[in-house]
Write a structure and sequence with these properties.
Elements: H1 6-24, E1 45-46, E2 63-64, H2 87-94, E3 102-112, E4 115-119, E5 122-126, E6 135-139, E7 146-154, E8 159-166, E9 171-186, E10 192-204, E11 213-220, E12 223-232, E13 235-246, E14 251-252, E15 272-276, E16 279-283, H3 286-294, H4 296-308
Helix pairs in contact: 3-4
């Protein structure tokens, strides 16, 4: 008896399995995530040379929708799928918030003993504590409210998470999303200015009425408000606003303006340098410098690959 042609059977099986898949989705590709993709090109760092726009030209107003990762099908009997291990997707979702990188000087609206409190928050990237969950980390030892915090993006919930330590040493966990979408609008000087409001509600400790909600309201590249709320009845009541002004100069938003100063780790505007094997690279903050020194070849490879993309 002649041998059964297994190669023919295998090919037939592949065709049989593939055709239903192609026809079942109507020939339409699954919607791709990209709500935050353009934010990668809208990162910001302190720069003495902000991007210039000709006075006769009206800058465009980029508007950013919330990032949608993975794919889903809402038809009966279907299951939603979400990417849960994408380091790059977390970083992409975090790009709109990169505007906060650097040192700030904050002043409380509320008076304490007749005077406002002065805070000095500093934001940096952290790529080392949880490599698959990059985060923006803030410290402000003089803060009357939150002395430190870690902001990241949860892919499974499609929400931001801010884990903060208050002035009494208690850890508080907040989650939420943009209540005012990310948008870059022309300022008085015709330069694009980043605006958004990120509202986060306390999820732990769940029964605590103090600092029950916080909101980061970016007003322009060099100014943001931190709003603090306590729980009152079934709602919340704002108890104070900390107005933060950036130390130094304004940021350019267009990565084309970064040139050779593009951060080798985050893609933002580099403000200092690191070296490896005789070559110098720019980094945007101390967190990116630490990540680069921990594994320079990894970051150089990613950097070179990103520069090859059209």
């Amino acid at each position: 008896m002649p041998a059964f042609p297994w190669s023919v059977a295998k090919s037939s099986l592949i065709v049989a399995l593939t055709l239903p898949l192609l026809s079942g989705c109507g020939g339409q590709p699954a919607p791709s995530g990209g709500g935050a993709k353009s934010e990668t090109a809208a990162t910001s760092q302190a720069s003495g040379k902000p991007s210039e726009v000709a006075p006769s030209e009206e800058p465009s107003k980029p508007r950013f929708a919330p990032i949608k990762l993975g794919s889903s099908d809402d038809s009966a009997g279907s299951k939603k799928e979400t990417v849960t291990d994408g380091y790059g997707n977390v970083l992409e979702a975090m790009q709109p918030l990169q505007i906060v990188l650097g040192k700030w000087r904050g002043v409380t609206q509320k008076k304490f003993d007749g005077m406002s409190k002065v805070e000095e928050p500093e934001w940096v990237w952290d790529f080392l504590t949880a490599p698959r969950q990059p985060a923006l980390v803030v410290t402000s030892e003089s803060s009357h409210y939150l002395k430190s915090g870690r902001m990241t993006f949860l892919l499974d919930k499609q929400e931001f998470q801010f884990t903060a330590t208050d002035k009494d040493g208690m850890e508080r966990v907040y989650q939420g999303t943009f209540t005012k979408p990310v948008e870059d609008v022309p300022g008085d000087d015709k330069k694009l200015q980043r605006t958004f409001t990120l509202t986060l509600k306390q999820v732990s400790p769940a029964d605590d009425r103090k600092f029950a909600q916080v909101a980061f309201s970016q007003k322009e590249n060099n100014r943001y408000f931190l709003e603090i709320y306590d729980k009152r009845g079934d709602g919340v009541l704002k108890i104070d606003t900390v107005a933060n002004q950036r130390e130094g100069t304004s940021f350019a938003l267009n990565p084309d303006d970064y040139g050779e100063k593009k951060c080798v780790v985050s893609g933002g505007l580099g403000t200092s340098t690191v070296s490896y094997k005789g070559k110098t690279y720019y980094v945007c903050c101390s967190g990116c410098a630490a990540a680069f020194k921990d594994d320079p070849e990894r970051w150089i490879k990613k950097f070179e690959e990103s520069n090859k993309k059209p």
